[in-house]
Structures are given as C-alpha cells and as structure tokens.
Amino acid sequence: MNKHPNYLLNQINGPKDVKQFTISQLKQIAEEIRTLIVERTAAIGGHTAPNLGITEVAVAFHYVFNSPTDKIIWDVSHQSYAHKCLTGRVKGFIDPDHYADVGGFTDPNESEHDFFAVGHTSTSVSLAVGMAQARDLQKQSGNIVAVLGDGSASGGLAFEGLNNAGRMRSNLIVIFNDNQMSIDENQGGLYQGLKELRETNGQSANNIFKFMGFDYRYVADGNDLDSLINVFNEIKDIDHPIVIHINTLKGKGYKFAEQNKFKFHWSSPFDIETGQSINNNFSDDTYDQAVIDVLSEEIENDQPIMAINAAIPGTFGLKKLENKYPHNYLDVGIAEQHSLTMATGMAKNGAKPVVFHNSTFLQRAYDQLSHDIALNDLPVVILIKNGTISQSSWTHQGDFDIPYITSLPNIEYLAPTNEEELQNMLRWALRQNNHPIAIREPMHNVEHGKSQSEFNDINYRIEKSGEKVAILALGDFYQLGEQLVQEINNVLHFNPTLINPISASNLDENALDSLLLNHQLIITLEDGSLSGGFGEKIDRYFSDKDVKVLNYGAKKEFNNNIPVSDLYRKYHLTPKQIVDDIKKQNI
Amino acid sequence: MNKHPNYLLNQINGPKDVKQFTISQLKQIAEEIRTLIVERTAAIGGHTAPNLGITEVAVAFHYVFNSPTDKIIWDVSHQSYAHKCLTGRVKGFIDPDHYADVGGFTDPNESEHDFFAVGHTSTSVSLAVGMAQARDLQKQSGNIVAVLGDGSASGGLAFEGLNNAGRMRSNLIVIFNDNQMSIDENQGGLYQGLKELRETNGQSANNIFKFMGFDYRYVADGNDLDSLINVFNEIKDIDHPIVIHINTLKGKGYKFAEQNKFKFHWSSPFDIETGQSINNNFSDDTYDQAVIDVLSEEIENDQPIMAINAAIPGTFGLKKLENKYPHNYLDVGIAEQHSLTMATGMAKNGAKPVVFHNSTFLQRAYDQLSHDIALNDLPVVILIKNGTISQSSWTHQGDFDIPYITSLPNIEYLAPTNEEELQNMLRWALRQNNHPIAIREPMHNVEHGKSQSEFNDINYRIEKSGEKVAILALGDFYQLGEQLVQEINNVLHFNPTLINPISASNLDENALDSLLLNHQLIITLEDGSLSGGFGEKIDRYFSDKDVKVLNYGAKKEFNNNIPVSDLYRKYHLTPKQIVDDIKKQNI
C-alpha cells in the first residue's frame, strides 16, 4: 500500500512531469525521495548513504535535461534510486508491497531511462564516451552525462575513460560526485589533490581534470538544488567535454548515515529511529574470525603478513585486524588490478600478501592473476568470498571464479569444506613459498570438521569408501555430497563413495584411477558455473575411460535476484533430483 | 663470435663494473649499447626504438644505484636491453651466436637483476609499490625504482599504481619516460597536460604527479647522461615518493627509428643501411585485407561502423582503414578495458563497434567482457588475433582466449576456418543486433573456402560424413582435421567424419547426438589451452553417453619461446601421433 499518498512524487510518472514543478516544490520532492530511500533500505536493505547524497543531482538533471534524448549514466548505479523515483518507478519506493519490483541498480528491462545493467565501479565515463561517439558518428544530438564518484575514480577504468573523454571535441558531461568517501575511506594520493580543489573552491591551478583536457566547473554545495540547476542550465548542450565537480554529503538527511557513512554505504535492514541493524536473514555466521585468527597467529610468529583488500574491508571483517595490526593491513581503494600486481611485488620482496576479494570483483583483475601472479609463480595468497550460486543481482554474480581461476597455470585453487580445513589450508598457504594459492571461502552455514593441525598435500580425501557411485563434492557443496550419500543409502540401498577433492584446480590422478575399479558413475558437485569449471576437468580425465560422469553446478547464464532455492531446483542441486538422475543411468 | 671485442662493454660483468668507468667512458658505453641494439634487432627482430631511447637511463641507474639491493622495474620490459648489457648478459647482444640465449623481456631466470617476467604494460608502479611495502614491513632498506613510459600511462593499472604510490611515506622513485609516443601516437587528454609540463620545463602549476602526492623533478634531456646522473644522485635514498619526468627521444641514434618510431617500435629483421624490412619468415600473408574489405563494404552501405583498437593498429593493418575512413576508426591508446566498455556504450546508442584485440591483451579486459558486454548482451563485435599456440614469449601467450571467453554467457565465439568464412561471419556479426560476437581470426597460412555469400546459422557443418571416428576441428585447426582424415584413411583404412564446429562456445546438440549412431570416438582439435576450452564442453556433453572423446590442444602451462613444432609434438598435435592414440582405443 502506498505509504505516502499525499506526496508530490505521486504526480510524477516520468521526467516530463518533473518540469511542471516549481523549484520550491522540487526541493520538497527531494526530501520526499530521501524519506523513501530511508524507508525502503530500512525494510529490505540497500545503498542508503550513496542514494541520500545524490538526490538533488537526479532532480536537477531531470528538471534541466530531457531524458532519454539526453542520457545519464550512473556509475555503479547503486545511487540511482532518486532517478528511478523520477522515471516512472516510484511505486517501488513508496509502496512496500512493490519494493521487490524495482532493483537496486539501473536495468534497461525496467525503464528506457536506464541504459545499462551496471553494478561494478568505474564504467560510467567509458560508457558515456561510447554513447557520445555513436551519437557523433550517426550525426545525432543530445547530451551525454556520466556520474562518477570520487571513490570510483581510483579504479583504472575510470582513468582510461577520463583520458579518452578529455580529447573529445563534442558534448560530454562528467558529474564528478565528490563526497570524500569510497565504500570506506578513500585511499590514494589523488584525494590530496581533490581536497585542494575543494578548499580553493575549484580555483587551484593544479587540476587533474583540466590537465586531461576537460573544461571544469566547481559546485561547493552539491546538495543545493539551485546551484545544480544553474550550472546544468549553463552547460547544457556544451560542445566539448566538461567536468562538473560537486561537493556532496554522503548520507545527507539521515543522521545515522551522515555519522556512519561506512556502515550505511550498503546497509542490511535497520531500525529507522536508532539506525541499529535488525536481526534478519542476513546471517553474520561467517568464517571471518577464523581467518583473522590464523593471520594474527602468523603475524605474532613474525611472518611479514600483509592483508590487502580493495575498498571492502567490511565484507571480510578486516577492521578487527586493522585495529590490532595496522602495519599488516592495507586497503588500496577500488583498485583490484593494483591489489594483485602490488601483491606480486610484495611476494617477490619477501612479504606474505593475502589479498581478500569477492568473486565478482576479482574478475576485474584477471590479467593480473594471469600475467603477474600466475606467470611469475610467486606465493601470493588470495582469499575469495561469494564464489557461490546466490540470489545476488546479476551485476554481482559470483559463480564464474572456478572457470576463470582454474584455467590459469600455476595457481592452486583450494576449496575448503569447513572452518578447520579453511584454517589449516590458509596456514599451509602462508608457510609455503612455491606457488600462488587461492582459497575459496565456503559460503553456507559455518561447518566444522576435524581439527587436524597439519595440511600437507592437496590429494583428494576419500571420506567414505563405497561402490557404484563416487561423489566428488567440492568446497561448500561437500555437505550436499553428504546429503546425497544419505539419499542414495535410503532410496537406492547402497553405499556410494564420497570424496573431498580439496582443490578445484587439481586432478588427483591416483584417486581418480582408483575409482575405476568399482564405480560406474562419477558425480561432481560444485557451487559455481559448470562451463569451464571443475566438473569439466573431471569429464576430460574420464573422457576416454569406461565410466560415466554427471556434473552438477550452475548453467552458464546471468540470473537477476532469483531465489537460490529456485536455482537449485533448476540445476538439479537437490539430493532427490540427483538420485532421480542416477536412476536413469541404469547402473 | 663477438662482433666487437674492443668494446668497453666486454669489461662489464655486472653493475659493479659500471661504476669503474669515467662519465666520458660511460657515454661511449651508451653508444656501444646503441650499436648492439640496432645490430641485434636488425638480425632477429625486436623493440628497436624503445631500447634506443632509454639507454642512458640504464647506464645512469647502474652507475648511481646498487642493483639488486636497489631495484629497478622496467614497465613492459621491452626496453631492458641496455639493462641486460650491464648486468652480465652482454653476450646476448654482442655475439650473434648467443642472441637466442637472452630474451626480449626481463626474466628472473636470466638474472638476479630482473625481478619479474613482464610483457604487458602499466604494471611497473604497482610492482614497485609492492616491493617498497614489503621492504618497509620487513624494516629493510634500498631504493625501489619503477620505469613507466608515457604510452603505458594511459593504462588504468598505471593510474591505480600511481594513486597508491602517491600516498606512501617512504622511498619510491618513478622514472616517467616521456618520449611522446605510445606504440603508435599517444591518445588521450593526458598528453595535453604532459606537453604543457615539457614546454614549461616542468614548471607548470598544473601537474598531475604533484596532484597525486608525488614530489617531482623534470629532466629536459633524458638522453643526457650527466643530467640523469645528477638527478639520480640528488634523489637517491629519498624518503618519499617522487616522479622523475624525463624527456627522451624514442629511437635515438638510429635515424630510421627516429624518423619512423611506429615502424621501429617493434621491428622484424631489417637492413641497417636502409632501414628496410628483410624478407624472412615473418609472413605478411594475413587476413587483414579480407577484414578491412568487409568493414569498407559495410561503411559504404552506411553502417555506423567504428573500428576500435588499443594502440596496436599495425597488428591488424588498420592504418589502411583509418586513411580511407578516418571517422570510422578509433585508437584508444593502451586502454583495453576502456575499449570494451566504450564499445558497449556505442552499441547501446546504435553504432556498430568492432574491437580488434590480441588474445593476450584482451584478457586485460575480462571484467569488461563479462560485466559490460556479456551482461548487457549488446551487439559488440570483437575480432581476436594471435589466439594460437605459438612460439611467443610466455608474457604474450595467446592460448587462453577460448577458456576465458567461452565461460561467459551471451557471447558467441566464432572460429572461422578460412578467409571466405571469416568474411561471411564478420558480415553476419555486423548485421545482427542480438548478441556480442567474438571472432577468432585463423593464424596459420591463409586458407580459402567456398565463397558462400550468406552465413545464417551457427550449427556445426558436417563436411565429410564417415564412420567410427568423428573429428571436431575448430577454427585454424580445421586443416589439421583434414590431414587427420587423410592419415586415418591411409593407416586405418576407413573414412572418419569431419566437422567444422563454427563456434567455440556453441554446443550443436543435434549434430552431436547424430554422431552417436555410428561413431565410437570423438576427437576435438583446438588451437588453444584445453583446460576450460572447447573440448571440455564436448566432454561434458558426452560424459554420460556411450562414446569416448579425445581432446587435443595445449596443456595448461606457460611456454617461453618454444618452437611451435616442439609444442605440437609434446601435445600430440600431429596426424601420426593422433592416429597412434586412436589405435590404443581399440575401436
């Protein structure tokens, strides 16, 4: 039900309607949007603070420009809520029954005013350059506007885009949203220069944007609607590239978000009155402490550990480590490529880098995985989270890591099945000097296993010896493997073999050959995309041998916020479905 | 035999020996090195002009600093010849019989003064930051020096590295080698700012390096040994990050290289007296003209084509297209990520981007392939060269593209087998609006096929219908498939089936199922790495069916300048070896 039937926003079905209001009414609309941002993110989670900070930009843009002839491209698009409210989608913000109808990122399937599905940073300027070049090539008109945050500006792609934008000879507008924050604090020398620009009201002669060929305007209060409308009117239809550098307040209007920008960058559901998180399905039952405990032990043992992340310490609970061992912690900002190449340099010079990445963001550094880490074969450790089939937005889909890592030489990709194994593998990885080791952190409920103090080899572990069917249950699908054993016992009345393969990249040929003696069917289970994955490596090994193989994992496709249970059913990732498949094999 | 037994260089067995000479002798040594660079690259090819331009930097570095305690990291390392001459490897430059002993890039297996195997651009600053952080963490000392060219500075990783270097509080020295060239001309707004710095003798207040937190020195003549030695002495052991911006002449000392920096960036063997290329094994029998012909046709038909490349127009012969259709050509500089994200924007706005990439460099934009092109499922066309098992340096190994492209949703990866098929596929790709299409240009001798004017579907083509064995011969291994048919005829006395699979990413299930009727063995041939590749997809399809499969391609490993014939033998990529393997299958 519409929570605010009296809001002016109810009169806005698209950008044209925005132009009917007075400036004073538009200011009220901005405040209405703020309320909706807080209400929606309090209820279902979301990017509270980034959206609060940019509300006036969206209002001013749709007041001055004519979307979709004039096009705005939101970097990351995690700050596009106000834009969505003004482009026909206010129902997804004003009516809790329809929150789920509208996603957290821009989506061309939702609206003609959204041009791209985007969730990774630093792409907006390059996308805008492409749209502008296409406009010019086809002799069309219209403004192309890219929004880029100061945090995203540390990503190399943003720089590549700015460098190519700066040489254009036609319309291109970059709104540089400087809120003095990345996800956490900004990291890098760049931010000194930006500070000087702010402190001189944009007058400093040392100006990276002008250096790169842009015209430039500075807006001291980027949350002041009048200022924004004035500058947009002034530069609309400009015939060359320009940066509008605006100083905004991340979290503006909601005091808890203003005070704790890091927590409210992306927030799980919270109580509006107190800003406190609400107990909910967002489990905090993770392996974070187990990982930090191992790093702390090794630091105490005088190992030169460096725990590296790219602007997402919260994902790994790394603030605890930073507080205790500040010299052993490094946030490089949004700069995934640098994180790995730098780690290569560290490992070469005797340190022990441990790089923490989300599966979906690590792919931003694929060449660095290959050309720097794998080729140089140095003992960099990479800890990967969210490598899993999940309900995520398709912009953050994390099930491609096994394919993209295991196709590279030299990198061992370990897949622990429980907390103790994760710790033992991490210790082993940190104490060896032979190869890069990636470790795929299990993503389901925290499981426990044998507390063996030593992990010495990556051979497969035959956990249950049986007959007919052998199950290779990788990483956090090991528990699914256990359930499958049970289901086979119950339904098919025999004991299959259960194997923990330890590594997604290793073929333990002795173990595989031994299975040929009394198994007719091999089953592989992996929590990731099958195409190029672990199961296919097993298929290749057995392709000329007398045994059949069934592979279970995700289909090669993008899935946008689909419940995991639906995906599991679709991919036959339930014990019952797999047993039905086994029956068809007539073994 | 040593061509110059009287050279002072013969007295240099390592950096310590460099310090024994007078400045005047060092200048002579620099000239000796120049002669060797020209002689070696004239004989066996190589990076003539980059090495000529940086000779004095290497001499001054080893005179002032103490390698390997002080460490120099060469970006790309294609300009490390002088460094190699001064660190015990002069034999590889002065004695033609030993040219092959020393590679064209830095290599830790060659010398303790080389820290990394490097061949891709823009990594040096990040590697240096890592080494410096490791030094500080372990409370060690020594200077860390990164060399970065102005051309490489357009790559986003260089910016990420500079941004993270600029905030350091300890020694880090960046030698910014500004020779006003990338591989071809520099591209981007950045180069306007650098020009202003040069024209003001480094005094301009607008200084991107200072903006990012660096101290700064300018050297107007970076080929003047005295100036370099002075500035190096001045800043040695500095306690904060500094950029030494040096203005050098690419190709210095060899007039043809000075006059044609593009041609001599990397040159095949040439006549020293005339600068003309020598007829040799470097074949110019390519598909370049065939591709340009199709693009020209489509441009003439008013298709809004944009031919995009990232600083390597020579690799694709694109200068011809640029000359004829300058509006339909775009070099983005060394900025592979931008090239793809920009292309996504172009396709969304109605243009027809065709992005030209080397297999080894396209991997620098893996996230852009995934998150921008594949997720948004827009009709970007990508033309890929050097996706092949080759004798390349392991830094440029191009056999991973099938794994990294075919594991992504939505992208179709076509693999033409001859010139006419390549043209037909390219026309089809440009005229469809459904999906991103990548095309893998065949890399062997130019082959010809049926000049069918239409290419309408991606189903497998059964070229020869036979029995027992079916050969899926992908792309430029189609001819190997034909040879294999012949060998099976001759040796095993039956007619196998030969299939052109058309695409590395498509499973034509009808075609595959039809093979089950009268074939016991499927053979896949692909000119790339097997792990995650085409053959494994076939393995998975047949893994629960009554047929065996043998996959032929490269092992997952790095190979450094190994002759292709050796690799083929190792990987059983000859008809005779495959027939021997078939015999063992007892079909």
Automatic annotation (TrEMBL), chains A, B:
Keyword flag Metal-binding: yes
Entry keyword DNA-binding: no
Pathway per the UniProt entry: Metabolic intermediate biosynthesis; 1-deoxy-D-xylulose 5-phosphate biosynthesis; 1-deoxy-D-xylulose 5-phosphate from D-glyceraldehyde 3-phosphate and pyruvate: step 1/1
InterPro entries per UniProt: Dxylulose-5-P_synthase, THDP-binding, Transketo_C/PFOR_II, Transketolase-like_Pyr-bd, Transketolase_C
GO biological process: one example: terpenoid biosynthetic process
Any one GO molecular-function label of the UniProt entry: 1-deoxy-D-xylulose-5-phosphate synthase activity
Cofactor annotation: Mg(2+)
One family name in Pfam for this protein: Transket_pyr
Origin superkingdom: Bacteria
Domain called Transketolase-like pyrimidine-binding: residue spans: 285-448
Keywords (A to Z) from UniProt: Isoprene biosynthesis, Magnesium, Metal-binding, Thiamine biosynthesis, Thiamine pyrophosphate, Transferase
Family the UniProt entry places it in: Belongs to the transketolase family. DXPS subfamily.
Quaternary structure note: Homodimer.
Protein name, entry field: 1-deoxy-D-xylulose-5-phosphate synthase
Lineage: Bacteria, Bacillati, Bacillota, Bacilli, Lactobacillales
